[in-house]
Amino acid sequence: MSEKTTYMRVQRQTRSSRVAMTICVMVLVGLVTMPWWATSGNIRWAIELSCYIAVAQMWNLLAGYAGLVSVGQQAFIGVAGYTLFVLAQNFGVNPFLAVPLSIITPALLAVPTYLLLHRLDGPYFAIGTWVVAEAVRLATSNIDYVNAGAGLTLRVMTNYSQHEREVAFVILCAILLLVTVGGSYWLLRSRHGLALTAMRDNAVAAASQGVNVNRLRFVIFIAAAVGTGFAGSIYYMAQLRITPAAGFDPFWASMCIFIVMVGGIGAIEGAIIGALIYFCADRFFGEYGSAYMIVLGLMTLIIALYARGGVWGLLQKLGDHPWFPVRRKLIVEDKS
Amino acid sequence: MSEPILSTHALSGGYGDFQALFGVDMHIDPGEVIALIGANGAGKSTFLKSVFGMLPVAKQMVRFDGADVGGTPAHKMVRQGLAMVPEGRRLFAGMSVEDNMRVAIDNARLPEDQGQWTRDRLFDLFPILGEKRREMVENLSGGQQQMVAISRALLCQPRVLLCDEISLGLAPKVIREIYAVVPEISAAGTAIVLVEQDVSLAKSASNRLYCMLEGRITLSGASGEISRDEIATAYFGGSHAVA
Amino acid sequence: MQWLDAIIQGVLLGGMYAQYALGMALMFGVMRIVNIAHGDVMILLSLIAVTLAGVVPVGNLGLILLVVPIAVALGWVLQKFILNKVVGADPLPSLIATFGLSIALQNLMLEIWSADTRSLPSSGIASESFNIGPIYVGLLPVIVLICAFCITAGLDGVLRFTRFGRGLRAAAADTEAAAMAGVNPKKIYATATAIAVGILGLAAVFAALRATVSPADGPAQLIYAFEAVIIGGMGSIWGAFVGAMVLGVAQAVGLRIDPGLGILFGHLVFLAVLAGRPQGLMARK
């Protein structure tokens, strides 16, 4: 017998994750204090970027983990935005309080949508979500109560000073990021996380291992609808105006797909990287209009054909430095 | 002595990173029946798939009729004269018995009227299929489905027929019925590779026998001359005591 | 009488949708791929037809004879360079790839043809009409419907009775087993895509004759094709035809109720079918 004792422990944090966590805290603090040090233009950018990250993260959860490819997430964006406008403008609810209330309608819409569409095969599910979004858009365009096709304007916002609005916006954005990115991280690290990762890799095998794939998919679909709707309310509150054509614009779906595929599907890091790339590309090349969109489309195509892991996948080939480690690593040490 | 119709030479391979075969050498002469036995996971199905071009292998690892054919896609191997009765039958659901057969006829090595096998001959061999020729295959019993699978493979007019566990899940009476056609197939000059888990069935139906364990050939010889003890050792590995 | 008219116009509209839907049913049936750029490819072919008509005076029939081969070639390119690389058990790569293609195509068309709506000049038989009792019927929509019916019947016959059709059904049921029976799946896929896009070529000329087209119209055509396929029953050729009729009638009836409700009615009928008969109207099971 040797005198050695073997110690085993489970490691989840890595140096890269501690660095990333520190940066996240700093970014959140920076975001919340923005009204005191940044220009209004910068704050608007921050709001936009936060919404992109949130919406993309939710799509990543759907497509990257639950295997539910949706091209109809704009349904939840528009519905939440309209709920906010109606509550604040027609019912006189404080608009900032109306934001958390406005996530109820996306959840209510998501339930029948999922129940109707879950019978459809992968690609047909995707187009099915699109049909639902189109149906909701057309229905909204025909409801006079919400001003039909002309849309609504959030006039009540003039009751608040510029500074008050900005403070409220950055706090809402911080909560949005915590709920969507932080929530995804928490979910993937919880006991459901293993099931989700197993599902991502092979849904049939996961089901045979006792994962209730259908129930988990249902829950993820609702959660993603809520997170997406939350971002939608903040986005259109900042825009002060919503129309059926904008709120239910299929471009939201294109954006999700582009961000997540370029950044790297099936990884929290991927959606963040993709959102940053898209945000910068939009700033620099947005003026080129359709030529820029051709490049975005071709990039998505090329990534689907040749580099399914996106930028994050390529980075991981260089070295394993997760920002949000969801794996458990068994460390075995021999000590004499 | 003439060259074997089909042979493998240090055949190695598997699925992606997982190697399942380690240098398998095997050969079969025209009209011969060989059996390939081994436990679950020994590599028998992987061997058939590798020979049939459904898993990547080097060109010189498989020789068919004097040419190196390793890695040739399955549909081209069919034109050369190889056919397979796949494990689990894998019939074309939603198509009738006759349409299942006609897919093979459409793509066979020889036209139906020039080959050994015709629908009429198979309907003589398996009369029940003649009665059910317009029936959808999913409505047939397991044994009848296996007959369709064998007919489909024979209508490719093969020179070598690979059979993957054709007795699996069938009643003993049905198995006897199906194995009864093996001599008739080999009498037509077609060589047959029988992959089997049922050792006594494999022994009685074949001229020669190979036993596989963990991706290697552990025993080979004339089926009549190999003893049960030898097979048991080769089947389970040397360290296992077998009653 | 107003409703009878709506139904007749709906059936005629369905003839157009059937032409969009057949290619999609064929491709999904064999490869389990839904080409998100389906509608955009159709619009591209329409715009090519409009441009060609301005260059070479060949008449409508000549135009069809020009555009259909272009469509078949386009289908071959699509198959060779994109679809062959993404066909597989996982639906995600094919979805994303064709989605990216759709965005790129739409904007490419916008660059080349601008956002204007275009159409083929309707002349000769295209502009003629007749009356059944008090109901006014255009000759062109009737021709479109007859064509759709013939293509459906032809395609169904090809699938049932030809070597290609058996190979396609075999590959759709079990690709690997089909290869073991000597079917070359890649060749089957390529032929299926060429036929599917070839039909779109015909539909493209009719679409530009019947109404106007613009680069942004693709997604709507994709959705109509998809709805027709699901209403009729996945993978069934006659199902796609019947689904297209149902969709056309639903839209025409909705339009009669309120001009803003036409397309919405189509969506609602689709969702109702999904709720009540998810396997589709014509499915065997």
TrEMBL record, chain A:
Membrane topology of this protein:
Multi-pass membrane protein
Any idea which GO molecular function terms this record carries?
Answer: branched-chain amino acid transmembrane transporter activity
**Subcellular localization, per the record?**
Cell membrane
Q: Write down what this protein is called.
A: Leucine/isoleucine/valine transporter permease subunit
Q: Species name for this entry?
A: Actibacterium lipolyticum
Q: Where are the transmembrane segments?
A: 20-38, 58-85, 97-117, 167-188, 218-238, 250-279, 291-315
Q: Which PANTHER family match?
A: ABC TRANSPORTER ATP-BINDING PROTEIN (PTHR30482:SF17), HIGH-AFFINITY BRANCHED-CHAIN AMINO ACID TRANSPORT SYSTEM PERMEASE (PTHR30482)
Q: Which InterPro entries match?
A: ABC_transp_permease, LivM-like
Q: Quick check: keyword Membrane in the entry?
A: yes
Instruction: Name the UniProt key words of this record, in alphabetical order.
Output: Cell membrane, Membrane, Transmembrane, Transmembrane helix
- What's a single GO CC term here? plasma membrane
The UniProt entry, under Pfam families, shows: BPD_transp_2
From TrEMBL, chain B:
Q: Which organism is it from?
A: Actibacterium lipolyticum
- Which SUPFAM superfamilies does UniProt cross-reference here? P-loop containing nucleoside triphosphate hydrolases (SSF52540)
Q: Which PROSITE patterns match?
A: ABC_TRANSPORTER_1, ABC_TRANSPORTER_2
- One GO MF term attached to the UniProt entry: ATP binding
Give all residue intervals belonging to the ABC transporter domain.
6-239
The name on file for this protein is High-affinity branched-chain amino acid transport ATP-binding protein LivF
UniProt cross-references to Gene3D superfamilies, sorted A to Z: P-loop containing nucleotide triphosphate hydrolases
Query: Biological process GO terms, please?
Result: L-amino acid transport
Which branch of life, at top level? Bacteria
TrEMBL record, chain C:
Can you say where in the cell this protein is located? Cell membrane
Q: Could you name the domain of life of the organism this protein comes from?
A: Bacteria
What are the protein's GO molecular function terms? transmembrane transporter activity
> How does the entry describe its membrane topology?
Multi-pass membrane protein
Stored CDD domains: TM_PBP1_LivH_like
GO annotation, cellular component aspect: plasma membrane
Q: What keywords does the record list, in alphabetical order?
A: Amino-acid transport, Cell membrane, Membrane, Transmembrane, Transmembrane helix, Transport
Q: Which residues cross the membrane?
A: 6-29, 41-58, 95-115, 135-159, 188-209, 221-247, 259-276
Pfam families noted in UniProt: BPD_transp_2
Q: Does the keyword Nucleotide-binding apply?
A: no
Listed under GO biological process in this entry are: amino acid transport
Q: Which family does it belong to?
A: Belongs to the binding-protein-dependent transport system permease family. LivHM subfamily.
PANTHER family, alphabetically? AMINO ACID ABC TRANSPORTER PERMEASE PROTEIN, BRANCHED-CHAIN AMINO ACID TRANSPORT SYSTEM PERMEASE PROTEIN LIVH
Protein name as annotated: High-affinity branched-chain amino acid transport system permease protein LivH
Q: Which organism is it from?
A: Actibacterium lipolyticum
